[in-house]
């Protein structure tokens, strides 16, 4: 198979946004406890946070971390997680049928963010709680001092406010599984009033209102329309969540998951713009794609405990990712970058152990899943501006999406260095793809590096014992002559080509 792509510096979509490379930490399974936090671990700090996980988070290139949920936040009392650790209550977490010992709360999380060099993105509980509790938390985190909650923070050891900028107004309130689930009208009103009041404390916040939990939700589209009609002037972003998985061995459809993500983003942006027009609003609402990943939701590990069993930090949602999963993760990042004009933030859900690129053994090793690599390489190399590409590629038939191009790609161009970086996926199940890049808009570029993640066995998964035998490898086929580049992409592969 062969495909050609024309890249031109004039085709700018928008800037590469650091917040595209966010992630998510929820009090769920072993994400916090024995993931981030493991006081017995040899690398643990005074707060009990694992140093090896902090190092891997930095290597992954994560920029923001959303916290503390997820479904968990809809029953969470943030006050349980402050003050002396030995006096904190244990609580039932209804979302994941677990017990939360509250060993980690907002102060510990802020200290972890400082260590990992990431921006915190907080979510407030609009399931079982409302405006007042959101205001209390904001006062605790962002008011310098001289009030009841800000002085409590100071007494708890944080003299300076945390200045949290991004806030999620609840989580997946469209989902019938959500504790405190609401209709679009009920939620839209509550979100608007919570946002309005939060801005009275801090007008510079960036507020995310809940969009749909997936494009397959029966209320998708109408939910966004109603919620934004109620809250438009008070919020900045609407959220989007999407999880993909290979169903019934249909690899071709799975590899085309970004087709759904593209459609999702376009549909939400159009709905937001329709509300803008109808409401005569000036500003534009953008998208915070604050949960996205591959997640095998039907596997037993995704089922919470039941009955009288309310464990602390059970093994939940610990998906082991293979090479095809990593190709899809890389492709979803291509889709997010391609929509950088409307997607202003995104969070890979989640960071550690729970549908995560980083895995840990309690007290033991930490390792990188296959999905770690496309994320880390994209976060490291995407720079400057995102360019729209002119693509000419053969198509492959899929059961879910009809004919889809075997190639999906995006490029970034850094006007400061002149460098161009191409991220590309070959979705063919069987064939190499000979890719020709027309670079006449960038005379004189040379290949600085080309790297490909693939394996003849696309079901290969990393383990603690072997996380390295299938890694992105140098792609030695990449070359440039007369301002055209050629590179061969193996079947079921993700690649990055850096041109300087
Ligand atoms: O990321 C796992 C769960 O997926 C989150 O708690 C929830 O928001 C979504 O349904």
From TrEMBL:
<dbReference type="GO" id="GO:0000272">
    <property type="term" value="P:polysaccharide catabolic process"/>
</dbReference>
<dbReference type="GO" id="GO:0046373">
    <property type="term" value="P:L-arabinose metabolic process"/>
</dbReference>
<comment type="similarity">
    <text>Belongs to the glycosyl hydrolase 51 family.</text>
</comment>
<dbReference type="InterPro" id="IPR010720">
    <property type="entry name" value="Alpha-L-AF_C"/>
</dbReference>
<dbReference type="InterPro" id="IPR055235">
    <property type="entry name" value="ASD1_cat"/>
</dbReference>
<keyword id="KW-0326">Glycosidase</keyword>
<dbReference type="Pfam" id="PF22848">
    <property type="entry name" value="ASD1_dom"/>
</dbReference>
<feature type="domain" description="Alpha-L-arabinofuranosidase C-terminal">
    <location>
        <begin position="290"/>
        <end position="493"/>
    </location>
</feature>
<dbReference type="InterPro" id="IPR013780">
    <property type="entry name" value="Glyco_hydro_b"/>
</dbReference>
<keyword id="KW-0119">Carbohydrate metabolism</keyword>
<dbReference type="InterPro" id="IPR017853">
    <property type="entry name" value="GH"/>
</dbReference>
<protein>
    <recommendedName>
        <fullName>non-reducing end alpha-L-arabinofuranosidase</fullName>
        <ecNumber>3.2.1.55</ecNumber>
    </recommendedName>
</protein>
<dbReference type="Pfam" id="PF06964">
    <property type="entry name" value="Alpha-L-AF_C"/>
</dbReference>
<keyword id="KW-0378">Hydrolase</keyword>
<comment type="subunit">
    <text>Homohexamer; trimer of dimers.</text>
</comment>
<dbReference type="GO" id="GO:0046556">
    <property type="term" value="F:alpha-L-arabinofuranosidase activity"/>
</dbReference>
């Amino acid at each position: 198979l062969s495909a050609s792509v024309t890249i031109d510096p004039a085709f700018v979509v928008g800037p590469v946004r650091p917040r595209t490379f966010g992630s998510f930490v929820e009090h769920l399974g072993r994400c916090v406890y024995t993931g981030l936090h493991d006081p017995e671990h040899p690398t643990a700090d005074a707060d009990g946070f694992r140093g090896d996980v902090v190092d891997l988070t930095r290597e992954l290139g994560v920029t923001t971390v959303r916290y503390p949920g997820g479904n968990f936040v809809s029953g969470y009392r943030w006050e349980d997680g402050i003050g002396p650790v030995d006096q904190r209550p244990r609580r039932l977490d209804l979302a994941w049928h677990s017990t939360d010992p509250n060993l980690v709360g907002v102060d510990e999380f802020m200290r972890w963010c400082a260590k990992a060099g990431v921006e915190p993105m907080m979510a407030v509980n609009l399931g079982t709680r409302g405006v007042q509790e959101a205001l209390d938390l904001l006062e605790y985190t962002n008011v310098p001092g001289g009030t009841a909650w800000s002085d409590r923070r100071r007494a708890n050891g944080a003299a300076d406010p945390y200045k949290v900028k991004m806030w999620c107004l609840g989580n997946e309130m469209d989902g019938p599984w959500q504790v405190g689930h609401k209709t679009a009208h009920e939620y839209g009103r509550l979100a608007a009033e919570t946002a309005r009041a939060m801005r009275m404390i801090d007008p510079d916040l960036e507020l995310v209102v809940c969009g749909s939990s997936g494009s397959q939700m029966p209320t998708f589209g109408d939910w966004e329309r109603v919620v934004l009609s109620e809250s438009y002037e008070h919020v900045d972003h609407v959220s989007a969540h999407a999880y993909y998985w290979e169903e019934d061995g249909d690899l071709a459809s799975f590899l085309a998951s970004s087709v759904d993500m593209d459609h999702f983003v376009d549909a939400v942006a159009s709905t937001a713009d329709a509300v803008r027009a109808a409401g005569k609003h000036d500003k534009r609402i953008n998208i915070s794609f604050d949960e996205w990943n591959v997640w095998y939701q039907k596997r037993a590990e995704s089922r919470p405990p039941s009955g009288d069993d309310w464990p602390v930090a059970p093994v939940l949602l610990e998906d082991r990712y293979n090479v095809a999963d990593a190709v899809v993760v890389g492709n979803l990042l291509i889709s997010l970058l391609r929509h950088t004009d409307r997607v202003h933030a995104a969070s890979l859900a989640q960071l550690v152990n729970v549908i995560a690129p980083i895995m840990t053994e309690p007290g033991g090793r930490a390792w990188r899943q296959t999905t770690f690599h496309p994320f880390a390489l994209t976060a490291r190399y995407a720079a400057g501006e995102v360019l729209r590409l002119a693509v000419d590629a053969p198509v492959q038939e899929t059961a879910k999406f009809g004919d889809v191009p075997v190639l999906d790609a995006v490029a970034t161009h850094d006007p400061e260095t002149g460098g161009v970086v191409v991220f590309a996926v070959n979705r063919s199940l069987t064939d190499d793809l000979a890719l020709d890049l027309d670079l006449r808009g960038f005379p004189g570029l040379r290949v600085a590096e080309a790297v490909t993640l693939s394996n003849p066995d696309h079901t290969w998964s990393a383990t603690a014992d072997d996380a390295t035998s299938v890694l992105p490898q140098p792609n030695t086929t990449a070359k440039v002559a007369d301002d055209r580049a050629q590179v061969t992409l193996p079947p079921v592969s993700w690649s990055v080509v850096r041109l300087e």
